[in-house]
User: What shape does this take?
Amino acid sequence: MCTIQKDSIFVNKPYVSLSRIYTDIELLDLLKSGDRSALDEIYKRYHGLLYNHAYRRLPDREEVRDILQEIFIYLWNKKETLEITSLSAYLYTSVRSRVLNVFRNQKVREMYMQSLQDFMNAGEYTLDEKIREKELVQLIEKEVTSLPPQMRQIFEMSRFQEKSHKEIAEELSISPQTVRTQVRNALRVLRVKLGAGIFTLFF
Assistant: This one.
């Protein structure tokens, strides 16, 4: 059963295999009509293949999982408007496109990070350099904002408000261990999203 956690439509739904009954074209028709079992079957048929396809090009398990989640959620959310003639071609093209976007974003971030590091080493800031630093800060804020709500709140209290784990635990009525786990998970996610260079520079 498909269990993508980013969208409740994938959670705790009864699954009936359609693999011996429907072709891809028929599954697309069922999907467009709102049949969630069709989405489950598409996920079951293609997830492993797409994962291997993406991982060969981008050997980052978390990034690949995120890419596949985005694709299947997008497929469901846009099911009524997508024009798909070949399901397999659409899915593989979507994977390649998102992998390329990851590489582009990583390249841009590395360029910004190196540029900012050079400016800091030189000890001189111009208007252009300040703009680059501001863009980096905005990028970091965007990634922090995209964290799950509780993880984001705990991370901001820890890093930005400089509260101890004990203080956060008492304020939110949770255990210190939960706080530590959430902060650790947030740092892990941000390291993947931002890249090692920017992460080390700011955290």
DSSP finds nine helices and no strands in the chain. Residues 1-16 have pLDDT under 50 and may be disordered. The chain has two domains: 8-102, 125-202. Residues 87-122 form the longest helix (36 residues).
